[in-house]
Amino acid sequence: MLASRARLIAGVGAALAIVAIGVAVFALQSARTSPVGDVALVAPEAVVVLDSERGLVAAGARLDAAALAHGVRQARVHLQAAAATADAVAQTATQPSADQPSDGPDADAVDAAGAQLTASVAGLDTAVARLEGLVAVAVSGGAAIVRDATAAVSGAALITAGMEAESARAALEAAHRGWLAALDAQAAEQARLAEEARASAADPAPGADGRPTDSAGDILWVTSVPTAEGDGSNGHLPMSVMCHIPWGTDQLGYAQYLRCDAADALTGLNDAFRAAFGESIAMDLTYRSYADQVAMKAAFGALAARPGTSSHGLGTALDVQEWPDVYGFGTERYAWLVENGPAHGWHAPARVREDGPHPEYWHFEYAP
User: Fold this and answer.
1) What are the residues whose beta carbons fall under 8 Å from the beta carbon of 259, sequence distance 6 or more?
2) CA distance linking residue 333 with residue 76, whole number of Å
3) Which of 48, 52, 230, 259 has its CA 20 to 30 A from that of 346?
4) Which among 224, 199, 239, 241 is positioned nearest to 310, based on CA atoms?
5) Bond into 307 cis (ω within 30)
6) Residue-number span of the structural domain to which 324 is assigned
7) Statement to judge: residues 211 and 346 lie in one domain
8) Distance between CA 78 and CA 83 in Å, rounded?
9) pLDDT, tens only, 145-176
10) Which of 153, 174, 161, 147 lies closest to 60, judged by CA?
């Protein structure tokens, strides 16, 4: 009896174990194919794919950030180069001014070169403004970097804009070289014409001491040419301290010379004069050698300065053309020169004013 009951209990226990195992297996299979509450399990292979996609996105973002940073660095290099070129051009742009009509031979070539220079300056300004704007967007927000492909700025955009700025800078350099070459060519042509004028001047009248004369035999006074061996005294200035005036000649086409500081100041005054009247100051005489002072004293007596005392002999005096209707006392140009000349170091001395002891409306002196 006891043995039978033990066998029954053992059989029931085995059956219950089998049922428990079956329930566990069914539950596991259901969990793999059906949601449990609000949570769905993800297959292991799906987890691997998701991590790979995230890695690619992160890698792309790092590449975009690196490209943007490189673009910013390159842009700043281009901006520095553009600023250096613009400064170099600005230092020569008023000798004479590139945006004003020129005088003398080859004026059309100089004007065309000046127009190209002005256009190139504007082109560089535009390219630099665009590049600066992109850089400002790229670095805005501190360390934050836009990595979205649809963003307003990217590394590629910065590189492209930087290349455009570099092209504009190179174009400005070329235009600047062309303008300077045109000015040099004009100066050379002016010198050639002056030499031809000297060679073709009328034979001097008897007693003219070899100086050019007009048809009536009157001496035509011209600007003296400085000599290399001048000792620096009045009327003996060496060429090394003298500068050629970059516009205009005297009545025979001779080049004009002044002491370099006076020439620079006169160039600035002429720029302002051209802005006011649309033309350069019409020069007649500037430097006067000692020999020419002696000759003028002999010709004009008390009206001429004693040789060795003329302000022309110091390279600091200018006579405009003796055109009374243009530069005479009371004319608009004379009044303008008297009023604006002192700002550039040029004055009409009291002795040559209309109420002075030696009225000469054409005479101005440099005395800063």
Assistant:
1) 237, 241, 242, 243, 314, 315, 316, 366
2) 48
3) 230
4) 224
5) no
6) 204-366
7) yes
8) 9
9) 444 444 557 778 878 888 898 888 898 889 88
10) 147
